Amino acid sequence: MPGLTDRRTSAMMVIVRRRSPWMLLPAIALVAASCGAEEGGEGTPTSSPPPRAQIQAIVASVDHYVGAPQRVAVGLVTNENELVSFGSVDFAFAYIGTAEEPSEPQPGPSATAEFVATYGMEDGGDGPAITLPSEGRGVYEARDVVFDRPGFWQVMVTADIDGVGTQQALATLAVGEDPLIPAPGDPALETENLTLDSEGVPEAAIDSRFVTDGEIPDPELHGWTIARAIDEGRPALVVFATPVYCVSQFCGPVTEMVQDLAKRYEDRAVFIHIEIWEDYETQTVNQAALDWLQQPSGEVTEPWLYLIGADGTILDRWSTLWSEAEVAAALEELPPMEA
Asked: Distance (Å, rounded) from C-alpha 208 to C-alpha 321?
């Protein structure tokens, strides 16, 4: 792939699906004990918080790198496997070195992170609250975070939780020198992804929902290839997701979000869904997903959303979960396309 061969090893054909943060709680090792507010000292942590007040932070975003504004998303859960949802929390980042040269935490950027709910779920409150997954499933997202050096970083999350008080949790994320997969500013790959016109391919390879629905429910998302959009000078919003087989349960909602956006902004871009699996039973991945999402390690993460400009340059990208309003605003900034 022109310009990206130093980032990826296309010969690797192994996929490792990213597991849901909520499902991985028993296996999470990089989580610090969270703290409660000490009586008589507002916001002062204590080593013996009420059991229900203990929270853990799990980094949900991936492929962080140096020098460019980007989004960092963190999920918050309690020790009773409930979620922390709604409102906003504070992120404070600190650099802790590399595997070869660890260091004491060195303060870095800080940011306010807003709650991003799973598409279709109502925002149920003004501030962080403990919820069940059915009440408020999502992540806290900070925007425009810039890391100034590669290595490992910690993020300290501070949340003022309704009925609990001020709590903190710590998580670790890796930051690379360069992005591992296509990123804003890169030329988009001229991919011949599968469409409804593709011959000799199973329908489930075009959209995994064919397995459960018996039809492809969103034909508007399967009429264009990325290559055709670039060739015709049309912006494209491209979602890489497997609605049926996604472990995180975010892929179906985000694909539905893109379908909704396609109806509202059909004059601003073409809309494309790329299914991850060519054949789930044999664990064969669609080549288009490999071309875009495979990291040098062979790992493929999903879901991802890419906005490609009319000149074929990647304008933005989102991982894991994203705000419909934020994506809609990016589409509104595009000029209307000619018919």
From this structure: 19
pTM equals 0.84
pLDDT at 8: 29
Question: How confident is the model over 176-203, as pLDDT tens digits?
Answer: 999 999 999 999 999 999 999 999 999 9
Question: What is the SS3 assignment for the chain?
Answer: CCCCCCCCCCCCCCCCCCCCHHHHHHHCCCECCCEEEECCEEEEEECCCCHHHCEEEEECCCCEEECCCEEEEEEEEECCCCEEECCEEEEEEEEEECCCCEEEEEEEEEEEEEEEECCCCCCCCCCCEEECCCCCCEEEEEEEECECCCEEEEEEEEEEECCCEEEEEEEEEEEECCCCCCCCCCECCCCCCCCCCCCCCCHHHHCCCHHHHCCCCCHHHHCCCHHHHHHCCCCEEEEECCCCCCCCCCHHHHHHHHHHHHHHCCCCCEEEEECCEEECCCCEECHHHHHHHECCCCCECCCEEEEECCCCEEEEEEECCCCHHHHHHHHHCCCCCCC
Q: Which CATH architecture has domain 203-332?
A: 3-Layer(aba) Sandwich (3.40)
Sequence ranges of the domains in the chain: 21-176, 203-332
Domain with residues 21-176, CATH architecture: Sandwich (2.60)
Q: Over the chain, what is the mean pLDDT?
A: 85
Distance, CA of 37 to CA of 48 (rounded, Å): 10
